[in-house]
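User: structure tokens for this one?
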Amino acid sequence: MRRLLVRTGRGTPLALAVWAATAAGCEAPLPASERPSEPLAEPEVAAEPEVAAEPDVAAEPDVAAEPDVAVEPGDTEAGQRADAETPQPDTSSDLPDLAGESADAVWQHPGSTGLQVGTSEEAALAEPVPPAPPGTRPRRRVDIPMLDRAFRDALGGITWTVTSGATTTEQWTVLADTLGMPNFIDTTIEDLDATPLFAKFLGDGARKACADRVKADKAAIAAGVSSQSPPVLFGALGLQDTPETAPAATDAQLSALLLRFHGRRLAPDAPGFDAWRWLLASSYQLTASMETAWQAVCVALLTHPDFYTL
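Assistant:
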């Protein structure tokens, strides 16, 4: 390079500078016209806001350590020695001593029959359990035609009738639809429940029919033996016979009426007879009329469930 500079005659300061840089092992500096302009300073970037620190997550509770499995006393040598030293319960009273018995001997429960499997011995069987008594059905009233016939049978041909002028109508026939008798147009099954409506009309019919029966009895008693319709309520009693003057006769007539109306043979000394005797006596004491007393007994007999239910 030195020779080149001298040979070319270019001993300019730039050339010398290039030579010096080359000799020193570095690049020669560029002239000012060739130097790049200095880079512009980068704008300062705004600092990012600090993010709030997340709260510390609560530490999970420590899982309880599983309890140590108890070691059976007989699992170790020390446990075997402890088992040997521990007193054992006496079970000799529960099981029989089979010492000296054959191998076929089997312990039997105290309540067993003593039979062994495979034997053909006879055994006494327990008596069979008797069947439960049949359930009782609820009472149902009779239908309207049966009730009409029951009135006629008990009262000697008299039933519930209403007379208006020269016309007499039978009320059981008039009220049949109202009391639930099927007409096979709107209804086909009769309601046989003893409803309050049925009880109301039964009471009305009983009072009217019993009043007619008392009138017929009075006429029969007045006619004597020539009457074709014997008295029903009075029976062999006279119009003046009372529980005080003829107690035995009145008791006998009450028994006859209970058999006629309810089909029950109730003796005067039976427990259920006192109620009917009290009804006859109290009705006579209140009204001083045996006609009213026997009419009250008649109404009670007709409205009693033993008369209109099955």
